[in-house]
Amino acid sequence: xxxxxxxxxxxxxxxxxxxxxxxxxxxxxxxxxxxxxxxxxxxxxxxxxxxxxxxxxxxxxxxxxxxxxxxxxxxxxxxxxxx
Amino acid sequence: xxxxxxxxxxxxxxxxxxxxxxxxxxxxxxxxxxxxxxxxxxxxxxxxxxxxxxxxxxxxxxxxxxxxxxxxxxxxxxxxxxx
Amino acid sequence: xxxxxxxxxxxxxxxxxxxxxxxxxxxxxxxxxxxxxxxxxxxxxxxxxxxxxxxxxxxxxxxxxxxxxxxxxxxxxxxxxxxxxxxxxxxxxxxxxxxxxxxxxxxxxxxxxxxxxxxxxxxxxxxxxxxxxxxxxxxxxxxxxxxxxxxx
Amino acid sequence: xxxxxxxxxxxxxxxxxxxxxxxxxxxxxxxxxxxxxxxxxxxxxxxxxxxxxxxxxxxxxxxxxxxxxxxxxxxxxxxxxxxxxxxxxxxxxxxxxxxxxxxxxxxxxxxxxxxxxxxxxxxxxxxxxxxxxxxxxxxxxxxxxxxxxxxx
Lengths: 83, 83, 152, 152
Prior knowledge:
The complex is a heterotetramer, with 2 copies of chain A (83 residues) and 2 copies of chain C (152 residues).
Chain A: E1 2-7, H1 9-15, E2 19-23, H2 29-37, H3 41-48, E3 54-57, E4 60-61, E5 73-77
Parallel strand pairs in A: 1-5
Antiparallel strand pairs in A: 1-2, 3-4, 3-5
Helix pairs in contact in A: 2-3
Chain C: E1 5-8, H1 14-22, E2 30-37, E3 41-42, E4 45-46, E5 49-54, H2 58-73, E6 78-84, E7 86-88, E8 93-101, H3 104-121, E9 124-130, E10 133-136, H4 141-148
Parallel strand pairs in C: 1-6
Antiparallel strand pairs in C: 2-8, 3-4, 5-7, 5-9, 6-8, 9-10
């Protein structure tokens, strides 16, 4: 299946990418994270070693055990600082 | 001594007076109230029988035992309802 | 009358007053305003007009004391109180309280404190014109309770 | 985007927005507004400009959810949230939350609730330009604590 992944703010800058479409077998956000972090230390550090990492699936706050579906929009971002 | 007495809102309407200057020997607001209430049942009811009566001396919230001085401004009024 | 406490018959403009409150103060991060307005219904009856009476002199003194107390209790960069008097219609603005601070908690709490104290300590009285004739508005127990929570 | 939740680059006018919030609602007795503004100093450093990034789509969804929750928890006649994005300067307005209710306690509490939830749940991120270069603003523990007090 395909998922559309978005990166925001400091994560976007650290990873040098704002958006990608990935073909994956990951059933959950957690499995998708493992797949992304296997790309190298930069990904490991920004995503898997980041205790403050926030995530959303289809624009709703998600967790590592949130399920993915084909065509899902997955977003990773740091804690929000608006207002 | 002379005191200047002000009546506000519903009290002003009940007593039919907004202001008077009174020559009195009353040493406290309480003594002044007794003097005013001796004028008749209308005064007794509006002032001395009124559990919600508020009072001020020289534009500061006062009580029955607050002292009076010559030239003092004494005010009687109901609970406030602004805002 | 202080620059930051006004009792007036005229209406006020929120944007103008907030701009004045903030002018030249780049350390402000939060502005809270409260505007009280005339409702067309009170205690089940239609209100045609409202007349606001006050005690000139003591009113300004009481409002300044409330404002000073708010500045003692919270870290405020500035604050403003405007209260109208005279005849008012439904939907008219009655009162403006505006507070400015670095962080929002100070501005929020100080604005609530000023309103709670104003409601129970500033000598204003409201008289409503209803279909059954004029009546003086009664003080509310809920206002007394709201003011008491700030007692130290 | 809902009529009462807006994400925009343009500035807003407080009086205009409050007039729109109140239009035709004579049962409103209390309007509380919160305006967040850019401070020229943050964490000890001079801030020259601020850039606000957001997550288009999720932002509006999150703000609408926060607004709906406020209407479930308090008796509100209306409310409004406007949040700006893009480059901002010191003293610029960032966010407006406005709440209108019959009695002031609802408006005050709902405005605080919306701000506390917005600060911790709406996907906005601030980047400051300081003399030492650009930096992403850190989330504040005090904002997390403020949001937690509304947990049921």
